[in-house]
Write a structure and sequence with these properties.
Keywords: Aminoacyl-tRNA synthetase, ATP-binding, Cytoplasm, Ligase, Nucleotide-binding, Protein biosynthesis. This is Glycine--tRNA ligase beta subunit. By secondary structure, the protein is α+β, with helices and mostly antiparallel strands. It has 26 helices and 18 strands. α12 crosses α15, α12 crosses α16 and α22 packs across α26.
């Protein structure tokens, strides 16, 4: 016989962004609990609203399976006392297992005999097992936790009721002073308490009290009502999926409605109006069939259609106040020039340990110029980049960005165009902030991409030099995201940027303008910074499910290589893993690498001396390496791998015939130099020692 189990945790309203991940976490922990308790089940379902997190288990087994197992006790030699009677150790073991000493038998394990007993563990009934769901409920973790009353217990919001039922039976447990039962709560304003007759009644019983507990059903209702409104009015309503998810987790019984605002506010840029509606009021914006913004908005009420006109008027009033502010700031901001705003940045701190925003722009200008030349920007692009770098933070001190912080960069582009800046410069001001999330959109212009990289490198270097290095989950300045952005832009543009190269650009900038680095002089932290950025590259590459971890460890081990080359090296190694001679090739090259590590620091112009060769294999290897090295610099990574693979046989013959650590010091050094020259060629692929070829 199978059962249905239901647990609902009733709460004060949960923040919208917490609802969905918390419901998923509840499912995960429930499944783990059931598996640990050896309880078979068909499915674990979840329901959620702003006021409840619910889990429903269907097809739950009647009881745990019985267990017949052997328990191991002490060694036989201590199971008896000196008189041949059972020792206290044996007696205690038997007692602890719920059997008598008469049930003891012996088994040999690794040459030693031990005491064993067979014991039978009867499975618990489902009703007893499911009381443990109390611990599952209490074990949920949330991004923000709070205490209430005089309790030390922390949770996302105060718990107000608990439902725990196995079919029609209440499963008793208690969290703080809240006892589980079979009474849920309907909609805060439209419903009443609900006494559940059975766990299977949950969805429909709550629906009768104006609560749609299925989040997917609620979302479908909202989407359908929005589409109906759009069709009725010949509108296009842009359904932002993130906003839809958020709104869905703000309501228990959704009713979509439309409102309007005065057309005079359409003189304000669309981005400002959309931000006011979407980010501040959680409204969906409306356009005509050609995509032109209309003076209308769509929102979702947590309730039915009663008195809906009052709700519409209230929302219109709130939005109008917001738009009036936006219109005022937009008009006032245009009364000053970009130069005026840039001048004000001299007194605005980027960070008190680093300096002003004006100083940051000056550093970024120096970095951007170097990066722009390196990646091949033409003269006009370099001129646009230089102009953008001089002004790109100016909008931070405008009234609009002061009121709508999320519009930084966006307003900079708008105001720059209004004041005559060209497309490249204006776009770069906005694109400098990209990507704004781990998977966010990348800059579309080369000027914007370079400015974005330069700004992010400056931020990371400055915070590292100031001792504010991210640790654990603590990253208040989003340096991980910025490092990820640098890598993603470089990979997308196929620019051969590396961390050491960017650090060299920082050093050059510091030498040119040391006054800009007085508080953030590059120092010992640069090695940590290098690894920090390489870790972000590894994070991106780790998303490739086909990439073996040892290949990843291999290619990221040499941060001197460009990001694009590290990524390409991983693809090439992965491609050749199944080659018949791959194992032998890597073993030969790694043997060279291990021996080369014993070599001293040779001068860059050190020359191999053929007159010190003592056997034919040394000569043949030198000729093979010379042939490879001649074409190596211009070869792509695929060809480089093939050329290295061609050295397998000469290397094998060399080691078979040659004692590297010869007694003659000159001969030994010559041989180490020969191996080091080969090892240097392998660096394009990282640290081959990390490859698992066993």
């Amino acid at each position: 016989m199978s059962h249905t189990f239901l647990m609902e945790i009733g709460l004060e309203e949960i923040p919208a962004h917490v609802v969905t991940p918390s419901a998923a976490q509840l499912v995960e922990k429930t499944e783990k609990f059931l598996k640990e308790q050896r309880m078979d089940f068909d499915e674990v379902q979840t329901y959620s609203t702003p006021r409840r997190l619910t889990v429903k288990v269907t097809g739950l087994a009647d009881k745990q399976p019985d267990i017949q197992e052997e328990a191991k006790g002490p060694a036989k030699k201590i199971a008896y006392d000196k008189d041949g009677n059972w020792s206290k150790a044996a007696q205690g073991f038997a007692r602890g297992q719920g059997v008598s000493v008469d049930d003891i038998f012996f088994k040999e394990l690794k040459g030693t005999e031990y005491v064993y007993v067979k014991k039978f563990i009867e499975g618990k009934a489902a009703a007893d097992v499911m009381q443990g769901m109390r611990d599952v409920a209490m074990d949920l973790k949330f991004p923000t936790m709070m205490r209430w009353g005089t309790n030390d217990f922390q949770y996302v919001r105060p718990i107000r009721w608990i439902v725990a039922m196995l079919d029609d039976q209440v499963i008793p447990f208690k969290i703080l002073n809240i006892e589980s039962g079979n009474v849920s709560q309907g909609h805060r304003f439209l419903g009443k308490p609900v006494e559940l007759k059975s766990a299977d009644d949950y969805v429909e019983a709550l629906r009768a009290e104006k609560v749609i507990v299925d989040a997917a059903e609620r979302k479908s209702m909202i989407r359908g009502q929005i589409n109906d409104l759009a069709q009725k009015n010949n509108w296009k309503i842009v359904i932002d999926e993130d906003l839809l998810e958020e709104v869905n987790n703000l309501v228990e019984y959704p009713t979509v409605f439309a409102g309007s605002f005065d057309e005079k506010y359409l003189s304000v840029p669309d981005q400002v109006l959309i931000t006011s509606m979407k980010d501040h009021q959680r409204f969906f914006y409306v356009t005509d069939q050609n995509g032109k913004l209309l003076p209308n908005f769509v929102s979702v009420r947590n309730g039915n259609t009663e008195y809906l006109e009052n709700v519409v008027q209230g929302n219109e009033k709130v939005l109008t106040a917001r738009l009036e502010d936006a219109k005022f700031f937009y008009e006032e901001d245009q009364k000053q020039s970009i130069a005026d705003y840039v001048e004000r940045l001299k007194k605005v701190m980027f960070h008190d340990k680093i300096g002003t925003i004006y100083e940051k722009m000056a550093r970024v200008r120096l970095l951007a110029a170097q990066i722009g030349k390196f990646v091949g920007l033409n003269d006009q692009e370099l001129a646009d980049l230089d102009r953008a770098a001089q002004i790109y933070k100016f909008d931070l001190v405008t009234g609009m960005v002061g009121e709508f912080a999320e519009l930084q960069g966006v307003m900079g582009e708008i105001y720059a165009r209004l004041q005559g800046e060209n497309d490249n410069v204006a776009a770069a001001i906005r694109e400098e902030y990209m990507p704004t999330s781990a998977e966010g959109e990348l800059p579309t212009t080369k000027v914007g991409a370079v400015l974005s990289i330069a700004d992010k490198i400056d931020s990371i270097q400055a915070f590292f030099a100031a001792g504010m290095i991210p640790s654990g989950s603590n990253d208040p300045y989003a340096l991980r995201r910025q490092a990820l952005g640098i890598v993603r832009i470089a990979l997308a543009r196929n620019w051969k940027l590396s961390v050491p190269m960017m650090l060299k650009f920082v050093e050059n900038a510091m030498n040119e303008r040391p006054d800009l680095y007085k508080n953030i002089m590059p120092g010992d932290e640069q090695k940590d910074m290098q690894q920090f950025i390489i870790d972000r590259l590894a994070q991106i590459m780790n998303g490739d499910k086909q990439l073996r971890h040892d290949v990843l460890d291999t290619v990221v081990a040499n941060p001197e290589n460009a990001f694009v080359d590290i990524e390409e090296a991983a693809k090439i190694l992965g491609k050749h893993l199944e080659d018949d001679d791959f194992k032998e090739t890597i073993e030969a090259l790694t043997r060279v690498g291990r021996m080369a590590k014993k070599a001293p620091n040779f001068e860059d112009d050190a020359v191999l001396k053929a007159e010190l060769f003592e056997n034919e294999s040394e000569k043949k290897l030198a000729e093979a390496v010379k042939k490879v090295a001649t074409a190596f610099e211009q070869a792509d990574l695929e060809e480089k791998f093939n050329q290295l693979a061609s050295l397998k046989d000469p290397i094998t013959d060399y080691f078979d015939s040659t004692m590297i650590m010869a007694k003659d010091e000159d001969v030994k050094q010559n041989r180490l130099l020969q191996l080091k020259q080969i090892a240097d060629l392998t660096k394009d692929f990282g640290e081959l020692d990390n490859l698992n070829v066993k």
